[in-house]
């Protein structure tokens, strides 16, 4: 990327392109961004989809996770993704929304692999205490691809986290001088307003 010639519109296209590609590519370093919640807690999550206009990001979560209850009460979310080869960092902020039922959650569930859906068959929710190291999965499902019938019970534990983006921060690291741009908007229906900032 020629950082000198890049314009603000190009930066938005770069963010959209990188996050959209990362959602489809397990090998992308941005496939697993850091997600922060209003309590200051951080965790790695898998990016499942990025709206091409940067309106929203989609991730999946266990409906029993403590972060789900937190997001429903305090929906502020932050995201951090970094690609070391490209030397590009993307930070974002927005409002999180949990969807357990409905067309978005149903489509996400249907599109997920059997192994991905198997994660929601654990006997207890994420963060539950245990006497020993364990996956929480029923022993008969450890290491195997479950059948559709076995996965029926998992659907109740599955939820989608949608993040409506309202702030973006793009940083390109270069030995001859970094470049940074910031964008914001009131809601997903408004155009992004951007400015260059000192890195």
From TrEMBL:
Annotated ranges, domain Pyridoxamine 5'-phosphate oxidase Alr4036 family FMN-binding: 41-98
UniProt xrefs under SUPFAM superfamilies: FMN-binding split barrel
Origin superkingdom: Bacteria
GO molecular function, a single term: FMN binding
Protein name: Pyridoxamine 5'-phosphate oxidase Alr4036 family FMN-binding domain-containing protein
Pfam families: Pyridox_oxase_2 (PF12766)
Organism: Novosphingobium arvoryzae
